Amino acid sequence: MAKKAKKVEDNFVMFDVVYEDGTKSSRRKVNAAGLDKDEIEDHARTEIMTQDRKIAEMSGKPRGNIKELVRSP
Questions:
Q1: Tell me: the pLDDT tens digits for 9-41?
Q2: How many domains are contained in the chain?
Q3: 16 Cβ neighbours under 8 A, 6+ residues apart
Q4: Alpha carbon of 33 to those of 42, 46, 73: distances in Å?
Q5: Is residue 61 part of a domain?
Q6: What is the overall mean pLDDT for the chain?
Q7: Would residue 1 count as lying in a domain?
Q8: Residue 54 sits in which domain range?
Q9: SS3 of 27, please?
Q10: pTM for this structure?
Q11: Is 35 exposed, middle or buried (0-12, 13-18, 19+ CB in 10 A)?
Q12: What is residue 4's predicted lDDT score, i.e. its pLDDT?
C-alpha cells in the first residue's frame, strides 16, 4: 500500500501578528517541525522577527516591535 503524501502545511503553524504601531500581518508561516507545544510561541516570535529583519533589509522599511502574536485559525 502506498504511503500518503505528507502535507507541507503540517510542518508549519500560522500566526497573526499585531505590531506596536497598530499594523497587523495575517497568517505568517513559521516552521514548527519537531517543536513541543510550549516552545512554538517563543520560536514563532524569534522566526517572525528574523523574517521582518530580512524584509526590512530588502524593502528599506523597518517593522515595529511585535505587540501580540496569536495563532491563526
A1: 568 999 999 999 999 999 999 998 888 888 888
A2: 1
A3: 24, 25, 26, 27, 28, 69, 70, 71, 72
A4: 14, 15, 18
A5: yes
A6: 87
A7: no
A8: 9-71
A9: strand
A10: 0.79
A11: middle
A12: 56
Residue 8 confidence class, pLDDT cut points 50, 70, 90: very low
Q: Which of 48, 54, 42, 40 is nearest to 16 (CA)?
A: 48
Answer yes or no: is 3 within a domain.
no
Residue 4 lies in a domain: no
Please state, in angstroms and rounded to a whole number, the distance separating the CA atoms of residues 49 and 54: 9
CA distances (Å), origin 3, targets 6, 8, 52: 9, 15, 37
Beta strands in the chain (DSSP E): 12-19, 24-31, 66-71
C-alpha cell at 32: 514548527
